[in-house]
Amino acid sequence: MNSKIVLITGANSGIGKATAIQLAQQGKTIVLVCRSQQRGEAAMKDIIAASSNQNVYLHLCDLSSHDSIKECTQSIRNKFDYIDVLINNAGAIFGSHQLTEDGLEQSFGLNHMGYFLFTHYVLDLIKAGSSKRIVNVSSLAHKMVTVIPWGDLQLCNMKYSQLKAYSLSKLYNIFFTKYLARKLLDENTGITVNCLHPGTIYSGFGASGTKFFSNLVKVGGPLLAKPSSGAKTSVFLATSDKVEKVTGQYFAHRRKAWITSKAKDMKNAERLWERSLQLSGIEDYGVVS
Q1: Tens of pLDDT, residues 4-60
Q2: 166 counts as catalytic
Q3: Is the torsion defined by CA of 172, 175, 181, 184 positive or negative?
Q4: Which of 1, 119, 184, 195 is the most exposed place for a label (fewest CB within 10 A)?
Q5: From the candidates 82, 115, 121, 166, which is the catalytic residue?
Q6: Residue 76 is inside which H or E element, if any?
Q7: Which domains does the chain show, CATH number per domain?
Q8: What is the pTM of this model?
């Protein structure tokens, strides 16, 4: 297999699917990571039809489950010797406080730990690739965070707010990006790590939120931009020569964008990194035995 290989999580709908279509149209080999086999297979057929590119593959994963991530990434490792670009795209907003099977608040478990764990298990494949890029989909929602609940990251001891939980997870995406970028730069791996706000997009996002939020998105959503627009910055960071050497940055509309002073705090980023290692039981990040 000689083409560039791009792995995209949460690729069966919305921005992830639109990203896959645009990259498949460029001739990239696309690896879709989806939770539902039915929806994943339907997306795979749509992507092939839209791109006339047959090099589209599907792997199933519940990205809120450590065991499922391990199983999925092992399957990927059995099939591919390298990955050129990883796009961590999967994410959701949840209308009520729920815990994953690993005992993590669902937004934290999926939106943050899903990125953290999946990247860990495929990092050596990215090191073996040629493009060596990691792209994390964050959000301007990170700007809504006023306080980081370090003593209650799983939000068990406070009144639950779906927007608070989601905004925190998107801030954590920026922390993850910045810390991993610095780590990989210090290790001279050649891997770049950047994150982005995709824009205010109508993508079906919000279905798992409260009933009011879900209905609000349905009513107002058609007035927003389409997923194909939201995919542009992910595609830019995955392919453009302009960002070949850029790492640890946050983008919007294919340009570097402003983040809060809280999001810039590398002490916060390191604190979250260490806590994520503890929660996952990982001792040596990126090393898979």
Answers
A1: 999 999 999 999 999 999 999 999 999 999 999 999 999 999 999 999 999 999 999
A2: yes
A3: negative
A4: 1
A5: 166
A6: helix 66-79
A7: 5-280 (3.40.50.720)
A8: 0.92
